[in-house]
Amino acid sequence: MSRSIFSMIQKLTSNVKSCHMAQIAFLQKVALEERCILVDEFDRPIGNASKRDCHRINNNGTIPLHRAFSVFLFNQDNDLLLQKRSPWKVTFPGCYTNSCCSHPLAEIPGETLEDDAIGIRRAAQRRLNYELGIPLSEIQLSDFFYLSRIHYFSSGDGIWGEHEIDYILFLQKDHITIDPNPDEVSEVQWVSKSMINDLTRTIKAPLTPWFQLILQYKLQLWWDNLKTLDKVQDYSVIQKYL
């Protein structure tokens, strides 16, 4: 191959990569305009605001409190699926976290419904499809076990942070299709209960703040009771880590 042809291929490859990165940046920017559900400290809805406004730290150091959810997906061997967030994510890029984390949206019909956390379940089903490529037909709303709620705050990188009431959903399925969206997720891996602490100590990337809190205070108890989650279900009281 001549040097001129090789140079041309390199240039074309670079242009394709630049276009893809620009597309990702555009998608992430669009996502910042989604409308999160604002709540008070008792998880009562009080309005909505853009995802941008719900994650950018105000001049006084505050962030509007809003609803979120965290899904913990287990297979039939009781292994937990972890993901590493895409480096293009606005908040906590390149961090390891639980299987799927996002928000119910005010503009999507059905995601504001509260009975039995049905709106949260619908949002979780939608995001598992978008982030991990799991077909909607493979996960039913009844498959989610609504376990708990946590209220936490993180100042993140000093520009973007989190202040959420996070609904914890457990899900145990086998033979599901996983095809991660590279715009959202850079890698996934199944981790056993016996290996989770060693893994999180040795990985060369930080953990998201909500996953770090859950790992430190609750995950072991919940994982130990994976087959009898009703024994540790405690969503009636919002656990505060502030």
From TrEMBL:
PANTHER family: ISOPENTENYL-DIPHOSPHATE DELTA-ISOMERASE. One of its GO terms (cellular component) is cytoplasm. It is an enzyme of class 5 (isomerase). SUPFAM superfamilies: Nudix. Pathway: Isoprenoid biosynthesis; dimethylallyl diphosphate biosynthesis; dimethylallyl diphosphate from isopentenyl diphosphate: step 1/1. Belongs to the IPP isomerase type 1 family. This is isopentenyl-diphosphate Delta-isomerase. It comes from Vespula germanica. The keyword Lipid metabolism applies.
